[in-house]
Design brief:
By secondary structure, this protein is α+β, with helices and mostly antiparallel strands. It is built from six helices and nine strands; from the N terminus they run ββββαβαααβαβββα. It is globular, with a radius of gyration of 18 Å.
């Protein structure tokens, strides 16, 4: 059901930025720790803009009048964290869509994801690795299905459309996948930094500024020869 509250949109469990380089035919990946501390736009008691506060980036999805606004708020938080050029497209995929995609692919075998507080030191690193296990297993299966039948792209999009929230129209999604599904997918990257426990008792991840700058320069800009 649609969440009605303007501050009750839930948290972003898995944040992945994809940078598509159509010239070199590559896809750069940055997985962002959900506990990364950054400036987040927040709403007041009556749904009005109440400025910004530094908090875990996963909480950015909690603010907005509807799913689109919550996605856009998360997008702005990522752009603010990275201080990067505007990110054009976004897609929110709920857990129900993951299970549906899994069924469509004929099953993806991964290790069960446990609660992060039950793993090691309670940080999100182990959970992020397990999330990547699913992605690393699913992407080759998707490519295999597309190679078997070009119609699989349309089938996959139509199957997932009732679940996902995105600013892409159906035709744009089909075109983007057709254009980039055979690109080289580079290994996932992570920002370096340090974990700590905040005053509220929750885990915080503080990204290293130089790590952010290095990723943005490599992913978004072309070096002059």
């Amino acid at each position: 059901d649609e969440i009605k509250g303007y501050r009750d949109g839930g948290q972003s469990d898995f944040l992945l930025l994809l940078v598509l380089d159509h010239k070199n035919k590559t896809i750069r990946q940055l997985q962002i720790d959900r506990d990364t501390m950054t400036s987040v736009n927040v709403l007041g008691l009556f749904g009005n803009n109440a400025g910004s506060r530094v908090m875990q980036i996963c909480l950015s999805h909690g603010y907005g009048m509807d799913r689109q606004e919550r996605c856009q708020n998360s997008l702005r938080a990522v752009e603010g964290l990275l201080n990067c050029p505007e990110i054009e497209l976004y897609m929110e995929v709920p857990l129900d869509a993951i299970s549906t995609l899994n069924d469509l692919l004929g099953g993806v075998t991964v290790t069960l994801v446990r609660r992060r507080m039950d793993v090691a030191d309670g940080t999100n690193e182990t959970r992020m690795t397990r999330q990547r296990e699913f992605m690393d297993a699913a992407v080759p299966l998707i490519r295999e299905k597309i190679n078997e039948s070009s119609g699989f792209i349309t089938t996959m999009i139509d199957t997932l459309t009732p679940y996902v929230t995105t600013n892409m129209v159906r035709g744009r999604m089909i075109n983007e996948i057709n254009r980039a599904y055979h690109y080289e997918v580079e290994p996932v990257q992570y920002l370096s930094g340090e974990h700590s426990i905040g005053e509220d008792g929750f885990v915080e991840f503080h990204a290293d500024e130089q790590s952010i700058v290095d990723f943005v320069l490599d992913a978004f800009y072309t070096k002059k020869e």
